[in-house]
Design a protein that fits this description.
Length: 545
Amino acid sequence: MALAGTLAVALATVTALAPAASAGTTTVDFGSCTSSNPALAAPPPDYSSQVTLTPSAASVAVGSPVTITWHYSLSTAPSPGIPIADAATAKAAIVVGGAASTTLSAGPSAAFPPAPVATGGTFQIPDFTATFTPTTAGTYTFTPGNNEQDVAQFGIVIQCAASGASAAATVTATNASASVGSAYVRPGGTVGFTGAGWIAGETVTPSFKDSAGTATTGTAITVPAGGAVSGSLAVPAAAATGAGSLVLTGSTSGAVPTAVTVLGAPTLSASPSSGGPGTVVGLSGGNWDPGATVAVSGVDASSNPVGSSTTLTADASGHLSGSYTVPGTAIAAIGAAELVGGAPSTTLRAAAAFTFAGNACTADAAGAPVSATGTCSVPQSANVTVSGGPLQLKENTGAVTFPGVTLDGTAHNQAGSLQQVEVQDFRGTTDGWVLNATMSDLALTGGPYANSGAAPIPAGDVSASALKCAGNPAGTTPYPSTPTAGSGGALSPTTAITLCSQAAGGTNPPTVTGGDFLVDAGLNLSVPAYLLQGTYTGTVTITLQ
């Protein structure tokens, strides 16, 4: 078949996509090739290619990743050429030796070629990469290994085994290390650092990256004999709080990061959050300076200390925990302040909300004279939960009925009324509501011409007037709401008229809306002078929203 022939031509090019030999780092023999679908694409014969492996750095610190780029030399398209653009992607294995042995997976590459290639034309298989992270010091070698080419469009995978290649690249991993004096710093503070195992003569540049990714670079240091470095770096006052890092980057050894957290404002929480004298309150908090002493006491509404204070010690991560006993004097909150130089800090402070409830008191002192009169009171809370009900409507059963008409060559106006609608708003909110009406055309549904497609009486010939909207006398009064009746008008299948509406209540302070309301409306049907005899039927739709 023509289609099968087209596929065969297209897939035949895949077997020859391997690059032809040209200048490169090492020559690789690829053989024992296999195809996942030999019927559509036969595996290629053995071939040789030159591959260049390029590491992103010649020397890195242990634990620092290095990128290895695989580059094929230029390729030549065999007969009948490559008629399909972006036909394939390439992958390969890179064999690691030397200080440790492993195999890396490189790729996939971008799709190639970017455009069809005629027989004998050249194209470039795009470079692709692998990442290697040394775990021990030493020199590592990188040798091209088995390769793979995938044609996703046809589900073809062609794999070839590599042999005869020599190491194409080396990377030396050093024992460069870094540490900080404290893993926590405040915005505007300073991070002290030390390092060891760096290469004498290389430059090491300190930098700090905050949780938002903003980097601050310090002054570069030339590594002396012995490989030790030390220094400090100022953290910007605008540094984002959260997990950051101090990074020492060697011109040869690469980057070594160390975690540093930028502390935010101290926090304090209390449980329980209310109680009377003698209540033991559990405290917890964060973002305090590690190891800091923190003074805790009750405070009044002006944040002045009440009663005696106690001290707590932040742990190595700046977390605070402990307890506080409520004094006999009323307090408005529980406050905490970090002691700096023995004095409470004016900035490193936090407070936990607390409701003082004096649930015990003494009316008369012990031994008071019989004639003595004292007073004593304690609060006792009272609570009730109020759940909102529905917004709903009900209507009287039955249809809207207009008096019958006998045709006499004149138009007739027939009076009717909407079946009464009851709106009940029991939500307990400040929300309003709207009651609307639409109507379909009155179709001819009875008589000798019923359901024949005869012209209907348009819905617009029905108009609403004398709208009423008031509280249900049978319900509970007074109601929070006073709804407004609509102005009426002609009904329509598409454009609603408002029968009744309730505006939203106030918001500051919030004003509840609600109630039980009855809605009535008079209707008038204008019957044309001439139309087919029979029964005309339409539907009035009442919508509450």
